[in-house]
């Protein structure tokens, strides 16, 4: 499985949140597809040299977000997107993160039109990557 | 409630007239890796030595695996591993002799092949005497000696002090490997907060002999916050905000260190105090530790501002 997680202690982001962010990104890019199995908690903990409870906590957060489902005895799997719930708070957070990008853009002297064009281009690029990610399977 | 493997009750130690440890109450549950952090001379080594019964407390008591620290039986000692600060080993012994010596204390559970594997992995010369080894090699021997009896409770006093990044990582791996087994617990002190963050799920913070925090690492990460506020005029004199640990004032600014105050409350307070701007400063574990243990009227050392 092409799941590479990189941990950096000493960031303001806690380690469990780093795992959550990286797995979420992998799912969004299509590098992890529904039904893919995540490494076992203990295996990932040993590999990354972090506390197993930290990995368990990350998987828990992912499960609460509906991104993965845990089947007792067989492991943790990427869930079906149809079954995922969207939380208003998550969407709110996403909107706030967009603000940071908009601020940077305006400070660089870009107009809103430029930003929209840039955003569309990035979306297309992302969609292409998603397709090629799925083809590999 | 999980079973506790390490408990202290009002544990206190004076050295002459100097108070080294002040009524320490701790409860460490089974199955965790607990990072024990504090500045130099905060009382970490004293606390560890008292827990292990190597020092007599002035007051209070400690229990390891349910047994009083001052009366640890050989049977209890066999279930505990201890790595001393600076890895003090008998210098005249060879690694092989030291293993033989140490094994005698753990007759039932010493894992010969595991010890041999580790010595081989570390590429240590088995017949060389301890005094001819480098600091790093001595630390590796000490790690192998601590893990070979597969201890139920492993206590380590600043085990990675002065070690290179690779050997430090071996210690972290050793802790993770041990904790993977059911019911194992690790309690270790360290100044390297990146290491603590990596392997711990629990943290104990000690400052000037007083326990300041004993909680899950995640709780600590979420609780300690720094907020900067700026005002058009003088900041308010009265700071009635929940969870305030201390503040730094300057002409038109306030810096608050808060414990457990949620972001919504911070916003409300900033509004009610008529701040023109406020922000919650992002901090890593090291920043949080420094702010948390900073003295109340702490000023930065290198800061020449007009007041």
What report would you give on this structure?
- Chain A is mainly α.
- Chain A contains 5 helices and 2 strands; from the N terminus they run αααββαα.
- The mean pLDDT of chain A is 86.
- With 307 residues, chain B is α/β, with parallel strands linked by helices.
- Helix content of chain B is 30%, strand content 29%.
- Chain B has 10 helices and 14 strands.
- Chain B has helices at residues 44-51, 74-77, 95-103, 112-121, 135-147, 165-179, 193-199, 217-223, 263-272, 285-292; strands at residues 4-15, 18-29, 33-37, 59-64, 67-68, 80-83, 153-156, 185-189, 202-207, 210-216, 224-230, 244-249, 253-259, 277-281.
- In chain B, strands 6-7-8-3-9-10 form a 6-stranded mixed sheet, sandwiched between helices. Chain B has a 4-stranded antiparallel sheet with strand order 2-1-4-5, covered by helices on one side.
- In chain B, strand 1 and strand 2 form a beta hairpin.
- The model of chain B has no long low-confidence stretch (mean pLDDT 92).
- Classes of the chains: A mainly alpha (137), B alpha/beta (307).
- The A-B interface holds A 7, 9-12, 14-16, 42, 45-46, 49-54, 57 and B 32-33, 169, 172-173, 176-177, 179-180, 193-195, 197-201, 218, 221, 282-287.
**Terminus-to-terminus distance of chain B:** 52 Å
Order of helices and strands of chain B: EEEHEEHEHHHEHEHEEHEEEHEH
The global form of chain B is: elongated
Secondary structure class of chain B reads alpha/beta
The assigned structural class of chain A equals mainly alpha
Q: Give the CA-CA distance, first to last residue of chain A.
A: 10 Å
Query: Uncertain spans of chain B, ≥5 residues at pLDDT below 50?
Result: none
Task: Identify the strand order in the major beta sheet of chain A.
Answer: 1-2
Number of helices of chain A: 5
Strand content of chain A: 5-15%
